[in-house]
Protein: Triosephosphate isomerase, cytosolic
Amino acid sequence: MARKFFVGGNWKCNGTSEEVKKIVSTLNEGNVVSSDIVDVVVSPPFVFLPLVKSLLRSDFQIAAQNCWIQKGGAYTGEISAEMLVNLDIPWVILGHSERRLLLGESNEFVGGKVAYALSKGLNVIACVGETLEQRESGATVDVVAAQTKAIAERISDWTNVVLAYEPVWAIGTGKVATPAQAQEVHYELRKWLQINVSVEVAESTRIIYGGSVNGANCKELAAQPDVDGFLVGGASLKPEFVDIINSATVKSSA
Ligand SMILES: O=C(CO)COP(=O)(O)O
Structure:
């Protein structure tokens, strides 16, 4: 069965309520392809989740950018999976490289978060990716495999997981991976899933690419056989996000 194209917009730590309203109205007016061929999920900062939920078109979904590894409680500054469920937020991004690198989230910690979020009924966009140094030393596949393994060891059902390959050197740098570079790592990740999880999970799990995706480069990336969509940062705050969503047609017309 074909994997449904998936486009996530990670707004990161950006925006005022006025700006958020503007972004949402641009999306609401956007002429996008049918939700039969693409899942669109936008991820505002926590404080804007209710606002975005109240305004956003009903064919788009919402993700939080993180959640805690276990049940809520005395964890100052954290947001629990239970709270997201309570607010009817269906998705969460976990293991983003900005959290891994700036806040020291380990592979095991991210794996634990993915397992806990899934156990509470959330859908997870789980991020993996290598640094420039790791790429230059030839460690890319080992790094993303280790990150994926820490997740795979803790979960038994991949149905509600989207895997996002985001090479750190391509994030926010304007230095996008070439379609061949993205395809190579996506292929390796799928092979890893096939060998270490199952053929079915490898075939059905969406592996999306993130790192300087924009309206101009999305189509060529989308044409790669193992690229099932995108996780977009900077360009998800701009009108061109609509063009990125519509790159789903590259797949449906293939
Ligand atoms: O980190 C990203 C999405 O999660 C990618 O960010 P940019 O698209 O701004 O490079």
